[in-house]
Amino acid sequence: MAKSTRIFMIALLVLATGIGTATAAQWSTTSMSLLKGSGYDLASSEDATIMTLEHASGWKYGDSFLFFDIFQPFDKDTSIYGEWHPRLSFGKMTQKSYAFGPVKDVLLATELNVGYHNRVYLYGLGFDFDIPHFKFFTINVFMRDAVREGNEATWQISPSWNIPFTIGSARFECGGFIDYSGADSEGSESQLIIVPQVLLDVSNFAGAPQNFYVGIEYQYWQNKYGVKDAEDNLVQAMAKWVF
């Protein structure tokens, strides 16, 4: 991607979130999670603890999602990876309907990934779906540009979802995402990341639902970092505090 295009994309990211911050959020949620697992490939430790900080919000013209993964937060070899996902709704900006079939809105979707000595810009379209029983289901379709020597722009498709359900008096949430991206340099491979979660709302038993969860997160990462046959295939114990 040309430098001028990158500057434009950065400006768009700042504009999308800056306006949203200046405008009262229609909704927002912040959480901290701890995950513990074993079997991380191409990592400083096969066994690891990950602390994740997340913030999501919606405002008059779009939404924003931000997270940071802190790998080994209690160890001297700590590393940090973050993603920022601001989006602008065509329907909300134009006061017109872009709904078709199960799609309820179309958005300008952007993303910035930073960490592990890497920076990636993504830009494209987002599609929000109206599916019964789902809290949300969205698919973002991106052009993906990793800023490193020898990189070529490629594509990425990213569905994400959350669906609550109950078993007796127990309240659960099943959420997660999939990232499927093409090879972005000579010798690299396409990557597939599948990360579903099943969490029990423990705080619901105390009459304060949606505050504290425990459960598991499964992580499958094929051709990790684009390296052929590098793979994460593991289940992580997870605790999540929403505040």
Summarize the structure.
This protein has two helices and twelve strands. It is mainly beta.
What does this structure look like?
This protein has a 12-stranded antiparallel β-barrel with strand order 1-2-3-4-5-6-7-8-9-10-11-12. The chain is built from 2 helices and 12 strands, in the order H-E-E-E-E-H-E-E-E-E-E-E-E-E. The protein is mainly beta. The mean pLDDT is 90.
Task: Give me the count of strands.
Answer: 12
Overall, the morphology is: globular
Number of helices: 2
> What proportion strand?
over 45%
Q: Outline the biggest β-sheet.
A: 12 strands, antiparallel, barrel
Average of pLDDT: 90
- What is the straight-line distance between the termini? 39 Å
Q: Can you write the helix and strand succession as a string? A: HEEEEHEEEEEEEE
Strands of the biggest beta sheet: in what spatial order?
1-2-3-4-5-6-7-8-9-10-11-12
| Regions with little confidence, pLDDT below 50 for 5+ residues | none
